[in-house]
Structure formats: C-alpha cells, structure tokens
Amino acid sequence: FEELIRQKMGLTLRPLTTESATRPGLQTISGLAIGNVEKNSPASRAQLQTGFILTGLDGRTTEHPMKVIEVISAKKPGESVHLTVIAPQPTFGGVEYRQGTVDLPLR
Questions:
Q1: pLDDT tens by residue, 31-47
Q2: Close Cβ partners of 37 (under 8 Å, ≥ 6 residues apart)
Q3: Helix (H, G, I), strand (E, B), or coil: what is residue 76?
Q4: What is the pTM of this model?
C-alpha cells in the first residue's frame, strides 16, 4: 500500500513513534508522519514536507496507512483529498506546532 500512496500523492507515510507523537510543545496526537516528498509531485506542490504529521484525510482520522488507501483508492486522478496536517515551525525558543489544511489533487 505504500507504493499506491506514493504514486497517487507523491509522498511516503510512516507510523508515528511514541517519541514523535509526544514531542515537547505538541499535545499527544495520532496520525502518520510524512516521510519523503517527491519533487514536482502533488505533495511538493502543496508544500508538504518531511516531518509534517498527517492527522486527517477528508474528515477521517489517519492513524494507519490503510485508512489513507481507503480514501485515495476511491478517487480518480485529478480529484482532490482534503488533508489536515501539523507542521513544525522553528522559533527562537525551539519549535512551535501549527495545524492547517490543504487540498491535494491526486495523480
């Protein structure tokens, strides 16, 4: 299923470790960590980056890659999925986490 996610979205996902889900300044969360983002892919055009955390996809939680597969496999190329992500933002005192959303067209 990892290959299907990469082909349609242009990124890889990995489970969150206990350490990454409980980082200082971040409330305990569930989701999937974004691994590699392919250049010139839908994910890179949506400005997703390695280290972001995917917490939702079309209003569903994303604690397992199979949930992502269920959503994206039902969509045609060119259709979009609505992602909810948490992005780390460097600050002078460390890191701040911000949640945001983005629509990602599938290929």
A1: 999 999 999 999 999 99
A2: 10, 11, 43, 44, 48, 49, 50
A3: coil
A4: 0.90
What is the 3-class SS of 8-64, one letter each residue? HHCEEEEECCHHHHCCCCCCCCCCEEEEEECCCCHHHHCCCCCCCEEEEECCEECCC
Report pLDDT digits (tens) over 64-102: 999 999 999 999 999 999 999 999 888 888 888 899 999
Position of tokens 């039902």?
A: 74
Closest CA to 32 of 4, 6, 61: 61
Task: Give the chain's end-to-end CA distance (angstroms, integer).
Answer: 16
